[in-house]
């Protein structure tokens, strides 16, 4: 049992490392463009909205917090405006009850988003209807849309200004890629603006 467990651990870590290498080879230009889009928005006094479901909701919250608080402890800077649309349980449950769950993020984008703001939607499959409707609403409001996606990008790929598609099919590896990509984008924005 110990040998099979160790093999599983090693195989998982190897697969994760291989996914990160694929991200480096295939996604670096898109990640760089995302840095520019986010930095431009922030320099223009705009904000970042983030959304996703399940583990992607946790990633949205994690990354929003990195902007509001900070990533690098040596960089002294003001908080940056980022809102995870996944954190207000009253809005989520009222929206699910009154207008249907597929509309909850779009409704928050309608209420909180403005022209020039950035919406980062996170979906491992690109098929999340609630995230896709948020992208559509953001487009109506002339916001910039960035998709953190996986697999083949799903429907989301065609709805966003910039798709960053983790080259993997396993949900766990995609999620690991998303948080790494988010950290890279947000840390570089922080560094270039305040470092």
Give me some keywords for this one.
alpha/beta, 5-stranded parallel beta sheet, 6 helices, 5 strands, 57% helix
Describe this entry's structure for a reader.
There is one protein chain. By secondary structure, the protein is α/β, with parallel strands linked by helices. The protein has a single domain, classed as Rossmann fold (3-Layer(aba) Sandwich). The chain contains six helices and five strands; from the N terminus they run H-E-H-E-H-H-E-H-E-E-H. It has a five-stranded parallel β-sheet, with helices on both faces. Helix 5 (129-140) links the parallel strand 3 (118-122) and strand 4 (144-150). Helix 2 runs parallel beside helix 6 (171-194) and helix 4 runs parallel beside helix 5. The mean pLDDT is 96.
Describe how the helices and strands are arranged.
Layout: H1 2-43, E1 48-52, H2 55-68, E2 82-84, H3 89-98, H4 104-112, E3 118-122, H5 129-140, E4 144-150, E5 162-166, H6 171-194
Parallel strand pairs: 1-2, 1-3, 3-4, 4-5
Summarize this entry quickly.
The chain is an alpha/beta fold and 195 residues long. The chain contains 6 helices and 5 strands.
């Amino acid at each position: 049992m110990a040998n099979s467990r160790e093999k599983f651990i090693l195989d998982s870590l190897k697969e994760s490392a291989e996914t990160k290498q694929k991200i480096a080879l295939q996604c670096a230009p898109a990640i760089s463009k995302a840095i520019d889009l986010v930095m431009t928005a922030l320099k223009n006094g705009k904000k970042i909205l983030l959304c996703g479901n399940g583990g992607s909701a946790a990633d949205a919250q994690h990354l929003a917090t990195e902007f509001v608080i900070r990533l690098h402890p040596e960089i002294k800077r003001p908080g940056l405006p980022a809102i995870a649309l996944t954190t207000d349980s009253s809005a989520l449950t009222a929206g699910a009850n009154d207008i249907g769950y597929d509309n909850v993020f779009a409704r928050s984008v309608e209420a909180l988003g403005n022209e020039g703001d950035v919406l980062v939607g996170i979906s491992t499959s690109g098929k999340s209807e609630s995230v896709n409707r948020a992208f559509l609403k953001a487009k109506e409001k002339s916001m910039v849309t960035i998709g953190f996606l996986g697999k083949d990008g799903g429907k989301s790929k065609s709805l966003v200004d910039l798709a960053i598609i983790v080259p993997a099919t396993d949900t766990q590896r995609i999620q690991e890629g998303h948080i790494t990509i988010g950290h890279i984008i947000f840390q570089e924005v922080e560094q270039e603006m305040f470092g």
